[in-house]
Design brief:
Layout: H1 2-17, H2 34-64, H3 71-95, H4 98-175, H5 186-189, H6 198-238
């Protein structure tokens, strides 16, 4: 369980490592071509769908997170019992008490078998939780890809409209120049008008695609681990 929570913390940290470009002001989402509007509308619908899938995956993970609670402790208790039997084995060997030694050796074999079986049980529940967490992580990554693609497409429109606005600002400044005499502090107040850097949105989009590829590969591994653990778990239950 601690391993799963640690994995989740690492994933959240990794998400925060990538800086998302500035939010695009809605006022610049005007004068779109039919193609641009069609593309952006489709991505917005896709983002809503992906968000619903993300929410569903989160609920599925939350539903299984408590499954198998206490199984790790059972394994730990069995291992403690085996440790005590090993102490008894050493004691009876030293005392040359063959009767008690034989009984202890038999108990140890039984305990070792119980431990191996319990390991299969704990592995089943732990890999199941890890798989569902990984499923959720994939959905988060898919949502990030769609949103970053949407922002990338929007940035192209926003840049075009912002550039026109900047050009008008420059024309107004040229027609109404500021007084030549400036105070010392006026020099620090001057800031150059900024447009939208489409390359930043594209780079972020590419980064999210790369992250998705990595999460899918990890998810494939988690699924394979779970399938193996499930087969062992099913075989164990079938033999009872």
């Amino acid at each position: 369980m601690k391993k799963i929570l640690f994995t989740a913390m690492i994933l959240l940290f990794c998400v925060s490592c990538v800086t998302r470009p500035q939010v695009i002001d809605k006022k610049y989402m005007v004068n779109m071509t039919d193609k641009e509007k069609e593309t952006i509308d489709a991505l917005e619908v896709k983002a809503v769908d992906k968000n619903q899938e993300n929410t569903a995956a989160k609920k599925e993970y939350e539903a299984v997170i408590k499954e198998g609670d206490g199984e790790d402790k059972k394994l730990s208790d069995l291992e403690d019992e085996l440790f005590k039997l090993k102490d008894e084995e050493r004691l009876y060997k030293a005392q040359k008490d063959t009767e008690k030694l034989d009984a202890t050796v038999q108990n140890m074999k039984q305990k070792e078998m119980e431990i191996e079986n319990q390991k299969k049980v704990t592995q089943f529940y732990n890999t199941k939780k890890e798989m569902y967490l990984s499923n959720w992580t994939v959905k988060q990554a898919e949502l990030s890809v769609v949103i970053s693609e949407l922002d990338f497409e929007k940035s192209k429109v926003a840049k075009r409209n912002r550039d026109k606005e900047i050009e008008k600002e420059k024309e107004n400044q040229a027609a109404n120049p500021a007084p030549e005499k400036e105070s010392f502090f006026d020099k620090f107040k001057k800031t150059e008008s900024q447009s939208y850097d489409v390359n930043k949105y594209e780079k972020y989009y590419i980064e999210q695609q790369d992250k998705l590829r990595k999460t899918v590969l990890d998810n494939d591994k988690r699924k394979a681990d779970f399938e193996k653990a499930k087969n062992d778990f099913d075989a164990l239950n079938a033999s009872k």
